[in-house]
UniProtKB/TrEMBL annotation:
<dbReference type="InterPro" id="IPR014001">
    <property type="entry name" value="Helicase_ATP-bd"/>
</dbReference>
<dbReference type="InterPro" id="IPR027417">
    <property type="entry name" value="P-loop_NTPase"/>
</dbReference>
<keyword id="KW-0378">Hydrolase</keyword>
<dbReference type="Pfam" id="PF00270">
    <property type="entry name" value="DEAD"/>
</dbReference>
<dbReference type="GO" id="GO:0016787">
    <property type="term" value="F:hydrolase activity"/>
</dbReference>
<dbReference type="InterPro" id="IPR011545">
    <property type="entry name" value="DEAD/DEAH_box_helicase_dom"/>
</dbReference>
<dbReference type="InterPro" id="IPR000629">
    <property type="entry name" value="RNA-helicase_DEAD-box_CS"/>
</dbReference>
<keyword id="KW-0547">Nucleotide-binding</keyword>
<keyword id="KW-0067">ATP-binding</keyword>
<keyword id="KW-0347">Helicase</keyword>
<feature type="domain" description="Helicase ATP-binding">
    <location>
        <begin position="1"/>
        <end position="60"/>
    </location>
</feature>
<dbReference type="GO" id="GO:0003724">
    <property type="term" value="F:RNA helicase activity"/>
</dbReference>
<dbReference type="InterPro" id="IPR050079">
    <property type="entry name" value="DEAD_box_RNA_helicase"/>
</dbReference>
<dbReference type="GO" id="GO:0005524">
    <property type="term" value="F:ATP binding"/>
</dbReference>
<dbReference type="GO" id="GO:0003676">
    <property type="term" value="F:nucleic acid binding"/>
</dbReference>
<protein>
    <recommendedName>
        <fullName>Helicase ATP-binding domain-containing protein</fullName>
    </recommendedName>
</protein>
<dbReference type="GO" id="GO:0005829">
    <property type="term" value="C:cytosol"/>
</dbReference>
Length: 73
């Protein structure tokens, strides 16, 4: 059984015309699952997908771009 669904670059998937494919996939999956939806932009289409495909969504937004990278080590 599928427990996790990841939709990366959701805005691009919708821009490229994959709405019907996403809807079909969602229709086959159990409603009790974890879904990660990632998008660079928050368009109306992405918001509609969130409403249709996610339960109890949480928005995490990054508002500032890092100006320089920090080494991990």
């Amino acid at each position: 059984m599928v427990e996790i669904l990841i939709l990366d670059e959701a805005d691009r998937l919708l821009d490229l015309g994959f709405q019907k494919s996403i809807d079909t996939i969602l229709s086959y999956l159990p409603r009790q699952r974890r879904t990660g939806l990632f998008s660079a932009t928050q368009t109306k289409e992405v918001q509609d997908l969130i409403r249709a495909g996610l339960r109890n969504p949480v928005l995490i937004s990054v508002s500032e771009k890092a100006t320089q990278s920090t080494p991990i080590c």
